[in-house]
């Protein structure tokens, strides 16, 4: 091991830089959810929310809120109906983000309901019709907004999940549910209108307009990019990309729905 020449001070050891992966992690914003509107949001954020890089995580609404509580996500999308109040999202957010300061901003509103086969052979018109004996369901996974919507409606109408054949079998997206109905593997499924427009062989029975909101936790280090995200949501450039997509109601897009 060589030593410094006499009379010259030893060089101070260099400070080790944080690993690149760790540095990158600090500059990313994790966005949860599956809707195409979130992909469009991420694209706009790449241009407007510098120097952060948006990352997409395809997680259901309830699991998304749990991941936010654990500090694993930054922007959570949620469409969770509270059957007792008829309110979307806020009752769940209040319970799961205990002790946190957050803002809830509307992304879009959209119709949810049930997919049925062409011609609606089982004549399903309302939630109460799901009590019909012998129905087969294409179900969504636990924690998804569609699964919560179904379970709340079954509870409110006194229908046991055990009555529905296939209740325990799960698909991880709306398209998968609509596809199973289309090919006759199920009599119905719960989902959003847009998936029915993309899958042939199904009809959509609209039953409820759901509010699809974004949640962001207000920490000192988040406040600057939260403001930038809100500006993106309220911009005409962002809305103009959403407007051609069938099934979206943009009347509240960018509106602050709740703040704590």
List its traits:
260 residues; alpha/beta; D-Maltodextrin-Binding Protein, domain 2; 2 domains; 8-stranded mixed sheet; 9 helices; 12 strands; 26% strand; disordered N terminus
Describe this structure in words.
With 260 residues, this protein is of the alpha/beta class. It folds into 2 domains: 23-107 and 211-259, Periplasmic binding protein-like II (D-Maltodextrin-Binding Protein, domain 2, 3-Layer(aba) Sandwich), CATH 3.40.190.10; 112-209, Periplasmic binding protein-like II (D-Maltodextrin-Binding Protein, domain 2), CATH 3.40.190.10. The protein is built from 9 helices and 12 strands. It has helices at 20-26, 36-48, 61-69, 90-96, 145-156, 174-182, 193-198, 223-233, 236-242, and strands spanning 28-32, 53-57, 75-78, 81-82, 87-88, 102-117, 137-140, 170-171, 188-192, 202-217, 248-249, 256-259. The strands form 3 sheets. Strands 3, 6, 7, 8, 9, 10, 11 and 12 form an 8-stranded mixed β-sheet that branches. Strands 1-2 form a two-stranded parallel sheet. A two-stranded antiparallel ribbon has the order 4-5. α5 (145-156) links the parallel β7 (137-140) and β8. α2 packs across α8 (223-233). The longest helix has 13 residues, at 36-48. The radius of gyration is 23 Å and the shape is globular. The protein starts with 19 loop residues before the first helix and ends with a strand.
């Amino acid at each position: 091991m060589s030593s410094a020449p006499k009379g010259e001070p030893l060089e101070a050891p260099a400070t080790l830089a944080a690993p690149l992966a760790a540095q990158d992690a600090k500059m990313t914003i994790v966005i949860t959810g599956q809707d195409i509107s979130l992909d469009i949001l991420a694209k706009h954020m790449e241009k407007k929310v510098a120097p952060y890089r948006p990352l997409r995580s395809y997680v259901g609404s309830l699991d998304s809120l749990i991941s936010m509580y654990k500090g694993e996500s930054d922007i959570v999308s949620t469409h969770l109906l509270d059957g007792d109040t008829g309110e979307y999202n806020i009752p769940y957010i209040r319970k799961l983000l205990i002790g946190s300061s957050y803002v809830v901003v509307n992304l879009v509103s959209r119709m949810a309901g049930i997919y049925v086969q062409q011609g609606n052979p089982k004549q399903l018109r309302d939630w109460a019709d799901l009590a019909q004996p012998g129905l087969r369901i294409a179900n969504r996974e636990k924690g998804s907004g569609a699964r919560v919507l179904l379970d709340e409606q079954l509870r409110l109408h006194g229908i046991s999940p055990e009555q529905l054949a296939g209740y325990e079998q799960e698909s991880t997206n709306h398209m998968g549910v609509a596809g199973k109905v289309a090919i006759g593997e199920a009599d119905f499924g719960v989902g959003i209108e847009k998936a029915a427009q993309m899958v042939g062989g199904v009809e959509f029975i609209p039953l409820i307009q759901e509010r699809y909101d974004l949640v962001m936790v207000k920490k000192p280090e988040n406040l600057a990019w939260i403001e930038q995200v809100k500006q993106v949501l309220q911009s005409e450039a962002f809305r103009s990309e959403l407007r051609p997509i069938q099934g979206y109601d943009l009347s509240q897009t960018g509106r602050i729905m709740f703040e704590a």
